Amino acid sequence: MLAAVAIPKAFFDAFGKAHVSLALAVMFTVSWALPIAVVIGACVFLGLRTLGSGDSRSAASLGTGMAASFVFGILGSATSVDESSLWHALAVVLDVPWFAIPNLAAPWVGFAVGVWLSHRVGRSAGHAAV
Fold it and tell me: What tens digit of pLDDT does each residue of 24-54 get?
């Protein structure tokens, strides 16, 4: 994940100068957001299946942990900026250009897909056992 992604100039040329933001959105989605969503979704799915409980409490616990980790990261960045306000730090994190929104949403999309898949597989296994 830490390796640099080399994007050929022809990729941006194909979109043209007027659509560089669209090219960035596609690049960010494919090179960062999609892999992050898949890894987190797989971890959530495997975690819920390993715990043996596809119930809402386990999923809520994982979601609460993710949210707490997100807020803790915000608080960490709040101490590094001049205005050490949680709201200011949150505004800085959420003030992203539109083409970077997939990067911000990727962990939460992965979480939602992992929970959905876990519930779906859990229901299928329950119907098969009947």
Answer: 899 889 989 999 999 999 999 998 888 766 6
pTM of the model: 0.76
pLDDT tens profile 46-76? 988 887 666 778 888 889 999 998 888 777 7
106: left (phi over 0), alpha (psi -120 to 50) or beta: alpha
Take residue 113 and report the two structure tokens written for it. Answer: 């897909």
The first and second tokens of residue 17, run together, are 């100068």
| 11-35 as b/e: b if 16+ CB within 10 A | eeeebeeeeeeebbbbbbbeebbee
93 near 74, Cβ under 8 Å? yes
